[in-house]
Amino acid sequence: MAHNTKKNLNLVFPAPGHDHKCCAMAALMKAEVLCRASGKKFTDIRRRVLEVVWESHAPIGAYDILAKLNRGGGRTAPIAVYRTLEFLMENGLVHRIASLNAFVGCAQAGHDHVAGFLICHECGAAAEMDSETLSQALDSELAARGFVVDSQVVELSGTCPHCCAG
Amino acid sequence: MAHNTKKNLNLVFPAPGHDHKCCAMAALMKAEVLCRASGKKFTDIRRRVLEVVWESHAPIGAYDILAKLNRGGGRTAPIAVYRTLEFLMENGLVHRIASLNAFVGCAQAGHDHVAGFLICHECGAAAEMDSETLSQALDSELAARGFVVDSQVVELSGTCPHCCAG
DNA sequence: CGTACTAATGTTATGTTATAACATATTTAC
DNA sequence: GTAAATATGTTATAACATAACATTAGTACG
User: Fold this and answer.
1) Contact yes or no for B52/B91 (Cβ under 8 A)
2) Which segments of B13-131 does DSSP mark as H helices, in order?
3) CA distance A67 to A89
4) Distance in angstroms, CA of B94 to C1' of C4?
5) Do A153 and B155 touch (CB under 8 A)?
6) What are the residues facing B155 on neighbouring strands?
7) Model pLDDT, residue B113
8) Sheet containing A126-129: which strands, arranged edge to edge?
9) Which of A116, A166, B25, B123 is deepest in the core (most CB within 10 A)?
10) What is the mean pLDDT of chain B?
């Protein structure tokens, strides 16, 4: 079996000087639209957690999210953050990065994809790697050997293009 | 670029009724040999932790290891387990499974490989997947796009052949 | 041998990540 | 408007991991 992965590795690391407000804004609007479409409630805390997650492209820990929510005197509890993250993950708005115990905004919300991640340990940013073809090929190879995959964690750490150049 | 992954996915889930004593024994002997060869000390606690890890093919948490070390009245502290696991990982005798916060014996100690894991959520067993070719291909595709990989976490969960059959 | 050095382990405390259990409030459907 | 479902609040604790420093056990070399 031959396959060319080139066209499928749809990987995008945002440039250092990009207009990040746009990323965040777009993500929030999309979240709102998606929730509305599926009858889910995009409540205040859900919006605020997602805003915090989208403050950068680097995965952020639950307790760091908590601290940001509570900057200025809030009293939100850890469990509230975890519950909210669970909701956001179930609805494809956030991903968990197991190797970092951290969370990152989903760059392709609404696409119902299986994502892998590239994590730059220089700038901290994580990019989704959309390698559906590769992953499907692997899964079917495995299935042929009797192992049926139903979830995956693929997290590659290294240096991103911008930091390589930097 | 074409590549056939078939011959490289060297994946082995031990059968339910296999003689596990042999697995454990072999792993311990190999550890001893490797340590001797590299001038590292295979001390008592290192041996005992590795024994516990090899009690099964299912990844085990650090605190579960601790509990087993202390069954019968020991007073080993958590840090001792973590230090020991660090040593065992540095020396290629144990792997960490990030998605489970758990540790598993290395099935190919001494080979200096980059491993991925298949984890069965029926029986709990984890098998190393030796897909050097696949991984190298992916890494070079990524390098071509400017991302230089230097470590990876690949953990696929699903149902193993024995549990599929069972 | 013995002493200085390094590696390994012990001890105590604490930091970090995540969830359980139950109460209250808000929304939705009828 | 009330019951049911959903969402959030409150308190406590479980589970995972490391920091800082003391002590012990090997090793190297005079």
Assistant:
1) no
2) 20-38, 44-53, 62-70, 78-90
3) 20
4) 35
5) yes
6) A153, B117
7) 86
8) A126-129, A116-120, A148-159, B148-159, B116-120, B126-129
9) A116
10) 93
